[in-house]
Amino acid sequence: MRIIVFGATGGTGREVVRQGLAAGHSITSFVRNPGAVVTEHDRLSVAQGNVVNAQMVAEVIREHDVVISVLGVRTSQALRGDGTIISEGARNIVGGMKLHGVRRLLFVTSFGVSADVFWPEKLLLKTLLKRLFQDNLAQEALIRESGLDWTIVRPARLTSGPETGDYKTGEHLMIGPFSHIDRSDVADFLVRNVENPDTVRRTLNLSR
Prior knowledge:
Elements: E1 2-6, H1 11-22, E2 26-31, E3 44-48, H2 54-61, E4 66-69, H3 75-79, H4 85-100, E5 104-108, H5 119-127, H6 130-144, E6 149-155, E7 157-159, E8 168-170, E9 180-182, H7 183-192, E10 202-207
């Protein structure tokens, strides 16, 4: 498959690129700073741009089969109220996919949007990180209404560790105060499910 990855230089994005290449896919990393891409591979292309630029996003999506978004906002940005970049990016990604007839979208959001979350975490997101919480809701609504073959992925607290393949997923999987998942396992789920029709039009929680 020809896969374009948004957020390719983040912790999860780097794993998606690595595992996607290992699975035999051709990968395009869409990044603001090409110098941040350290991987070299004959099936890896690097496209420079900004996800809030609709024209750039639409152009780079052309001729791909799958879009994977692991875009994220730093906590410091969210605390400042600067947390709408993901929904802006989601709008441009969906628009570009529709323009060029690309159907498959896997989009990582946040466990905090789920109802299956213990109340302290939900309270934190609705107060201290209110803007980010609202942005997550907006992007999920946009994706669900897109008509695309989407999968929304809500991982638990992200940690860094080796890929294990040992994790749980479900539409109503409870995310507790100590729930977590390694970024490498989130990437494993995304890459494994690029062609899985059973995950289409589903919103899935992920946790160890």
